[in-house]
Design a protein that fits this description.
This protein is an alpha+beta fold and about 130 residues long. It has helices at about 5-20, 115-125, and strands at about 25-35, 40-45, 50-60, 65-75, 80-85, 100-105, 105-110. A seven-stranded antiparallel β-sheet has the order 1-2-3-4-5-6-7, with helices on one face. The model has no long low-confidence stretch (mean pLDDT about 90).
Length: about 130
């Protein structure tokens, strides 16, 4: 199947960032191409301090640009406690960024959809308590 160039470039950047993480590894990496312009990605990154970052996206190309149909970026500590989670599940209609939002240990806040690469960087700041 001939895949869209924008998807290939997107995945290439994702691979590079994951590969260059210090003291972390991908315990799961799945790409599911549903067509040449639609993709589901699922990644589980284990941080050296035991934290787990799960990244899930449904991506499609529209007008030569990447569009996210759905996403969930979840970071939990070594004891399985929530650190943060970004998602666009439409269950907080009163938020200004609806359906996008961010879960924190003390509640849910407005948040636009972050770039997946920035989420990986944000999670790495929390590694070893460096936040």
């Amino acid at each position: 199947m001939l895949r869209d160039t924008a998807l290939e470039e997107y995945l290439s950047r994702l691979h590079e960032v994951i590969h260059n993480l210090e003291d972390s590894y991908a315990e799961l990496y799945e790409e599911e191409f549903l067509s040449n312009d639609r993709l589901n990605v699922r990644v589980r990154i284990r941080m050296g301090d035991g934290q787990l970052l799960e990244l899930n996206e449904a991506v499609v190309i529209e007008k030569h640009e990447i569009c996210h149909l759905g996403y969930r970026y979840h970071l939990q500590d070594r004891n399985n406690n929530l650190v943060f989670r970004y998602d666009n599940t439409p269950h907080f209609p009163d938020l200004g960024s609806f359906p996008n939002h961010k879960h924190l240990p003390n509640g849910v806040v407005d948040a636009e959809k972050p770039d997946i690469l920035n989420v990986i960087k944000e999670a790495s700041v929390f590694q070893n308590g460096r936040h």
